Amino acid sequence: MLFIRRYLNDIRRNSRFDETDNYIQHGDTTCLLHTVAVAYYSIRFSRLLGIKVNRKELIRGALLHDYFLYDWHDGKRERRVHGFTHPKTALKNAMEDFELTEREQDIIKKHMFPLTPLPPKFRESIIVCVIDKYCSLYETIKRRNAYERLRRSLYM
Question: Residue 106 has what DSSP assignment?
């Protein structure tokens, strides 16, 4: 978690990132905790398989992949297609608040493949795409107290 905390603290400064803690992603997991989990497990996955990655860009892209800043459960008509449209909104918001590399932009823009038509271009994008689906499934099935250890380390 320490390797993520440095980038997380940097992102939290001078941005709207903390707003993501106000929105539920799946179950009772907030968007903030979801993105931290995706960053954490993306790094662990790449290490486990010995995949060479740009760690900084992988972590930053994972932390910002769901930076859409709204409640997608609010019942509004336009939210019905949230799965297809939120990567574009997240990228727009992230580009307003941060300078992003091409790799970070690709991670954010393509993490919902195949719901979005273009496939990921970089290893880091593929990893976040896969781990995001794993975490989303886990949060949906677990429903309550997913990532309790991560949650405690995040708020300590």
Answer: H
Number of domains in the chain: 1
Say which CATH number the domain at 133 has.
Answer: 1.10.3210
Neighbour count for residue 41 (Cβ, 10 Å): 22
- Spell out where 12-133 has E strands: 24-26, 29-30
Helix residue ranges, H only, the chain:
2-12, 31-49, 55-64, 82-97, 102-110, 123-142, 148-154
In this predicted structure, the answer to whether residue 85 has a pLDDT above a threshold of 70 is yes
Domain that holds residue 129: 2-154
Is 0.85 topped by the overall pTM? yes
Element (H, E) at 125: helix 123-142
